[in-house]
Design goal:
This protein is of the alpha+beta class and 379 residues long. It contains 11 helices and 13 strands. The protein is globular, with a radius of gyration of 21 Å. The model has no long low-confidence stretch (mean pLDDT 97). The structure holds octanoyl-coenzyme A (CO8).
């Protein structure tokens, strides 16, 4: 048990990004889905004709790129995804004594963040694993990671879909500020490919796997090459069923299909687009106004990475013009939507060039609905 001092200055002192080796292109996904659709629609022609079964709709690689900006995605395991007899990754279950898959990818990102922040296990007091799904309810993935890294203190998991990373950074900020911890490791092991319906053209292309990590610590202990003061945090949630997964522990008692398509990610994409863009723009300008800033004062926007057209629309509402890739970097062309990790990938890859005093805004928006932002200033 330790007693720490409260800290007025809280900073981000390092970030880590782990990218899976395997890439799946739009063309590969479309070829698999279209072959699956041909077989399904032929085998079920009579039922489809009688209106008792819906046909599987074919996908189109040029639609995907135009509608979303996504060209490819990285996945933890590629085997099985393109197999029309399977249409989901084939991931081997590990024994209880072995390191879990999600802890493994979390550790890759965590170690990179510790190196970037110049921190040892003994400098860190808490681990938060925050993402769209954890592979089990308990024990927490965060405690498994904490144990592997030899960190004393405490760890816990939290789920906030697309805003899991920003909301966890908010909690880390509050913990360091209040003195509950000197430094907190926030990790986003987004292992989402098992939750994708690869038979559904509306959503089969949207997501990719990744792991990111960020160290939040006291300003007076930070000694890394790139330190960002956290000037403020803001969060907002508004209930919506437009992005949903009914996967959960109640399935066993419901007597419904535990593997039904409603248990996988599904959404009303167009409605999400229309409703979330104005909310996000208003949230961001409101957050800046609280600190006396205008959107034009921001040097870099590390925005959530769901759809390039959404990011451009939000930026246009804020700036009155399209931003260039230097102002609002896009990473979703390579990574696709990585749930909560997208804005942290953008931060990880695009922060070292900022100059002292430059302002940056890290922001997520998505399921819930949820919006989370952190206003940062380079030291
Ligand atoms: N190929 C060909 N045609 C297609 C395809 C396809 N792959 N997909 C859809 N179409 C068709 C549609 O069926 C529709 O046809 P019709 O007009 O005959 O009905 C037509 O194309 C137009 O479809 P849309 O109106 O849906 O097309 P959009 O331009 O809206 O683009 C998008 C679809 C890209 C999904 C877009 O709406 C979008 O990106 N919306 C925002 C969604 C968003 O940001 N959601 C956030 C989700 S992420 C999140 O919150 C985290 C959740 C946790 C992670 C889960 C991990 C698994």
């Amino acid at each position: 048990m330790r007693l720490h001092q409260a800290s007025d200055q809280v900073v981000i002192s390092g970030a880590g990004l782990w990218t899976p080796d395997h890439v799946v292109t739009n063309e590969e996904l479309v070829e698999a889905l279209n072959a699956y659709a041909d077989r399904f629609n032929t085998e079920n022609a009579l039922e489809i004709e009688a209106g008792r079964l819906a046909p599987v709709m074919k996908s189109d690689a040029s639609f995907i790129e135009k509608a979303s900006g996504i060209k490819q995605r990285h996945v933890y395991v590629k085997d099985g995804i393109l197999d029309i007899n399977r249409m989901r990754p084939r991931i081997v279950e590990r024994a209880e004594g072995e390191l879990s898959h999600q802890a493994e990818i979390a550790l890759h990102a965590a170690r990179k963040a510790m190196a970037a922040a110049n921190k040892k296990a003994a400098d860190i007091d808490a681990v938060i694993v925050s993402c769209a799904y954890t592979q089990r309810a308990y024990p927490a993935i965060a405690i498994e990671v904490q144990d592997e890294l030899g960190i004393e203190g405490f760890g816990f998991d939290m789920l906030v879909a697309c805003s899991a990373a920003t909301f966890a950074l908010h909690r880390a900020y509050e913990m360091v500020r209040s003195g509950t911890a000197r430094a907190v490791m926030v990790i986003n092991p987004e292992l989402v490919s098992p939750q994708i319906n690869f038979c559904d053209r509306d959503s089969h292309f949207i997501f990719g796997d990744v792991a990111t990590a960020v160290i939040v610590e006291r300003g007076d202990t930070a000694n890394s090459a790139s330190v960002f003061d956290i000037l403020g945090t803001q969060a907002q949630t508004v209930y919506s069923n437009n992005i949903r997964s009914n996967f959960g522990y109640m399935s066993r008692a419901f007597d419904t299909d535990p593997f039904g398509v409603d248990k996988l990610f599904h959404q009303e994409g167009r409605a999400v687009f229309k409703e979330v863009c104005p909310m996000a723009a208003e949230h961001l300008s409101g957050h800046l106004a609280l600190y006396g800033f205008e959107p034009t004062d921001v040097r870099r926007w590390w925005l959530h990475q769901a759809n390039i057209n959404m990011n451009q629309l939000i930026s246009k509402k804020l700036l009155g013009r399209m931003p260039d890739n230097d102002e609002a970097p896009i990473v979703l062309d390579r990574y696709a939507n990585t749930a909560s990790a997208g804005s942290v990938i953008a931060f990880s890859l695009h922060h070292e060039d900022l100059e002292s005093g430059d302002l940056g805004m890290l922001c997520s928006f998505g399921a819930g609905y949820s919006i989370g932002s952190l206003l940062l200033r380079k030291r």
